[in-house]
């Protein structure tokens, strides 16, 4: 079923981050059932018209939704909604994650959740999942070199780690939170770290490589430690900024 172009998504007030605002709007519609699994989203041009944003913003938002497992794109055909994972009564509204304090609280949850996920991923990951993680890291490095979107491959890497636990609840929770878990979608993380964007992202990339290396070696304790270090570094940078 194709969603009528004028009812599929409802423009909201202009968000701090245009792509993230578009992600949140479409995500709300999918989880509320206004856009049902199998429904075709409007064309890029129609979304551009509705929200008054560029094609680059639309493509970045759709890429993030795809990484979150909420939509899939068939090239030359269109983008379709998928069945949302998780569900239940658990709710974290990404629109409410806007202050440093909000992000610190979420990072505390992520440290507990993702450190253990990394350890389980090291023990249980498949060769195919490991390859997908490497592709996500390569995409991050490519975007870093070109000045492109690093949020999508960043979230994709963390989601792949969760999926590699072979425990669907880790992946369900990560999918529910979506790319809002990446602090720089809510605030200027590089500014808080008192360094330029390229240097900040290069350090994030190295921390990802450490996590990947431990998972590749199937060293569960090293994977837990690398993930904890990665997320704790983000938390400490924000605490110092406060």
UniProtKB/TrEMBL annotation:
Database matches in InterPro entries: GntR_C (IPR011711), TF_FadR/GntR_C (IPR008920), Tscrpt_reg_HTH_GntR (IPR000524), WH-like_DNA-bd_sf (IPR036388), WH_DNA-bd_sf (IPR036390)
Protein name: FadR family transcriptional regulator
HTH gntR-type domain segment(s): 16-84
GO molecular function: DNA binding; DNA-binding transcription factor activity
Organism: Achromobacter pestifer
Database matches in SUPFAM superfamilies: GntR ligand-binding domain-like, Winged helix' DNA-binding domain
Domain of life: Bacteria
Keywords tagged on the record: DNA-binding, Transcription, Transcription regulation
